[in-house]
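Let us work through a complete example step by step.
Step 1: write down the sequence.
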Amino acid sequence: MKRRALYPGTFDPITNGHIDVLEQGLNIFDEILIVVAQNSQKSPIFTAGERVEMIREATVSYPNVSVSCIDNRLLIQYAKEQHATAILRGLRQVADFEYEFQIALMNRHLTPEITTVFLMPHEKYTYLTSSIIREVARLGGEVADFVPYSVLRHLAKKLSTNHTQPH
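Step 2: predict the structure and record it as tokens.
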């Protein structure tokens, strides 16, 4: 039986920190399904479809990675439907842990056969968030070191559409 993990997130946009966690996960799991989640507490600049497209472009060289999207459902139920054995989460800093730990414990209560695996990105990405990337790009800063190349195109297009084109 293949070991399959779900890697959920809003990925608005996907960053090199996300890719780093994905690559670590591929050393543990046979397949990873990246799940673009809708989060009512966040206001993404990219639609779910655009985020799925960006992730597919950024992960095209990983044959055992696929991408899907869920909305208004429990991730743990989706994980069960997808025959996942684990949920993969990245932890950048201690502040991430408390929230992620609570979610992991609830998921364990709901579906004990699916575990949560926490991985840390390389230290050069510990301060990196999609929110920071969006803001730096919106204000004309250089983000090429922090996102896959394909994301740069999407950011430029989205920001020029919003009339806040980077300088």
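Step 3: interpret the result. The longest helix spans residues 94-110.
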